[in-house]
Amino acid sequence: MSDLLGPVLDTSAAPVTAARIVEPRIPRLLLTPDHHLCPGCGEPLAIRTLLQAIEDLGIEQVICILGIGCYTSFGANLDVDLVQCLHGRAPSVATGAKRMRPEAAVFTLQGDGDMVNEGLQEVLHTAARGEHLTCVLLNNGVFGETGGHMTATTVIGQRTKNTIEGRDAEYHGYPILIGDLIARLEGAAYVARGSVHNAGAVARTTKMLRRAFETQQRREGFSFVEVLTMCPTGWFIPTGEGPDYLSSTLAEVHIMGELKVDGVIRTTEELHAENVARAAELEAQLARGGLES
Amino acid sequence: MSTVRSRGTVTIDTHTCKGCELCIPACPPRVLTMSTGVNQKGYHVPELHPGCTGCAACLMVCPDYCFEVFRFEVPVEHEIQEDA
Amino acid sequence: MTTTDPTGRALMEGSEALVRAAIAAGCRFFAGYPMTPFTEVLEHFAALLPDVGGTCINAESEIEAVGMAWGAVATGARAATGSTGQGLALMQESFSEATLAELPLVIFNMSRSQGDYFQATRGGGHGDYRHLVLAPQDAREGIRLVQLAFHLADKWRNPVMIYGDYLLAHTLEAVEVETFEFPALPPKDWAATGERTGTGAAVSVTPLGVAKHGQPDDGQEGRSQWIATKMPLMEREVRVETGHCDDAETVVVAFGSTAKFVKYAVAQLRDEGLRVGWIRPVTLWPFPYDTVREVAARVRVIGSYEISSGQMVDDVRIGAAGLAPVEFIGGVSTDHSGFGLGRLLDVDEVRERIRALHTGAAQPVVPGYERFTYRPAPHQLEVTP
Predict the structure, then answer these.
(1) Quick check: C211 and A76 CB within 8 A?
(2) A246 touches chain B (CB under 8 A)
(3) How far is the C-alpha of C353 from the C-alpha of A42, rounded, in Å?
């Protein structure tokens, strides 16, 4: 590879030279790419992987149960039948919806403030009951919509508007690793933690979401995917620093990996070792010039 | 002169771009740079240089869905003038 | 009456009659949390729904119960939840927002007293909203009112409450559970069934006024305006029953089980020659203000008999519009359990209070109740500027 950067190429229109599209610009279930979330927000990436997973599996009848957070406004962009519910209440609403429409793929889309603060008992009970639905957690470690406040997943040392000096265990308590709690419940069949801080993580997360929906399709029980997302606004950092901040703070505590699959439960500690190995493998793939999907 | 091969290319919707710069480090061959000019919203936007592999990493990390990614049937060769 | 047919004649408690009526109306989902005196409603749904292909979930909390019912109605099913006053208090945020989302949710309130009147009619939740509230006086009326509730909920796309009580829930009566027919309603094309996903025409069921891309957005203001302007239209659903108001000098207003006691006491007083009558609101909201006003123009005094410290009396006063004096002649009354009836739901007690109202005598004091009368401390009687 040359160290010299060649001239700027024309990227305003599709190439005239014979070429095929590798990846469409937006997933089939997205009505428009326009949205009002902040520059550098990870939530649109997480939602993209989610819609991609649904499309990959060819699922047609889908109901989204949407929580309250920044992502709420994104509901307008989804070509998915949608039930908007209250902060924390998506799992119970999803339960009623799935019981009445068992043939539909039902998923919740909730932030960490929504699911792990307000709605902690809802998601735990829904998992314990083994409801055949998929809860998706967008975890950025803050209440983004209200301006960047501590949630139950904020990590020790993380700076937020009400932990300006950094979260202090003695004063503010410890974060909850929700995936570990859910994995221990018998009704939970698939539990995973992904992230969107780089292309490799995105690819891995898409696989997790596919697996979660397959679990639902096969009626094997409750499925759960946590997706770590960047929130440069709520983290008070420049947008470009989002991925590194995520990988050095949230991802050090909420470790990526599959916590429960095929009846086998792994703890967060066990995932850490797996991750180190996997990161090296993905770097090698990218260097060879492509990601296997 | 040196030759750089592009296996792929992209289109970039610069009007939708919010200048977050996540695509820059995400590109494995590092052929994206931020412009000096700004778009209508006042954001710097990414620009593509020769060497794209069509891996779609930029598409995967762009929160504003600005990229569409193509792979050439036959890779395109660019002749690049080296600086004096 | 079979496992798949809820109708028929049998001796059953009021809770069961109401549940059978709900199933006859097509209710196929219920979620609830046990609390006296509502628990049997949950039990009967749990026993009867599976046989008709429905689902009853014993929710882990009241808030989750109303959430599950929300999800079920949002997909187009007929569904209900319920509790008693304390549990309904937990559900209030959902009640407000369900109204904004135009969800046809039916709510069973098996109350411990008539002191949940404000909660039911004024709303314990936030914002401007009203629920239709139907107050059956007994199981027989409840069988029709429950089915009416499901119809009105779908007709207006608004929550409807059945306001019952301990007596209604637990009294066994021989009743005929029959299916009532109501006028046809349009199909629920607003429901989120998942079938329009991917068609470009997916729907949102939302309290927030956020529309899908390309559709006009109400916004919060538009949505609130929409609901606020719907409320006066729902007032045409007012229902009321009256007795002996044509020649009455004194009229008593009462609802629910209490009204049956009032009716009986009035009959006894009329046998003695006293010109007394009664008004029984069947809908607590909308309240029959017009009926009260019309009667107030002709009578000397109107009494409100409620088992509470006086809540419906406010609506009676609004209705009377100053045309006749209005007096509260009920009171707080319960037994040791806190769930039951107590001294003031007793025919003799009711009759003597109405007699005192009619003759202008002082209201009788219940022996033993004096020690519960609040004794203020001296500093509480000082005027604070």
Answers:
(1) yes
(2) no
(3) 68
Place of tokens 């020690």: C371
Predicted confidence band of residue A284 (pLDDT cuts 50, 70, 90): confident
Chain B residues whose beta carbon lies within 8 Å of the beta carbon of residue A30: 65
The CATH number assigned to the domain with range B2-80 reads 3.30.70.20
Please judge whether B9 and A9 are an interchain contact, meaning their C-beta atoms are less than 8 angstroms apart: yes
Please tell me whether residues C276 and C158 are part of one structural domain.
no
Could you tell me the CATH number of the domain that includes residue C269? 3.40.50.920
The DSSP result for C23-68, as a single string, is HHTT--EEEE---TTTHHHHHHHHHHTGGGT-EEEE-SSHHHHHHH
Nearest CA-CA distance, residue C205 and chain A, Å: 5
- Coil, helix or strand at residue A105: strand
Q: What is the CATH number of the domain that holds C76?
A: 3.40.50.970
3-state DSSP: chain C helix, strand, coil percent, rounded to 5?
40, 15, 40
Do C154 and C296 lie in one domain? The reply is no
pLDDT tens for residues C23-34? 999 999 999 999
- Chain B residues whose CB is inside 8 A of the A53 CB are none
Structural domain boundaries of chain B? 2-80
Residue-wise pLDDT tens digits, A125-150: 999 999 999 999 999 999 998 989 99
DSSP string, A195-224: E-SSHHHHHHHHHHHHHHHHHHHTT--EEE
**Is the minimum CB–CB distance between A122 and chain C shorter than 8 Å?**
yes
Contacts of A104 in chain C (CB under 8 A): 193-194
Question: Is C115 inside any structural domain?
Answer: yes
Cα dist from C293 to B3, C237, C297, C315, C348, whole Å:
94, 18, 6, 11, 29
Q: Which domains does chain A have, with CATH numbers?
A: 43-287 (3.40.50.970)
Contact B54 A290 (CB under 8 A): yes
CA triple A33-A39-A44, angle to 5 deg: 45
A94 inside 8 A of chain C by CB: yes
Quote the ipTM score: 0.93
Confirm or reject contact between A31 and chain B (CB < 8 A): no
Count how many domains chain C has: 2
Q: How many CB pairs under 8 A join A and B?
A: 164
SS3 C295: helix
Q: Which structure tokens are listed for A2?
A: 């040359």
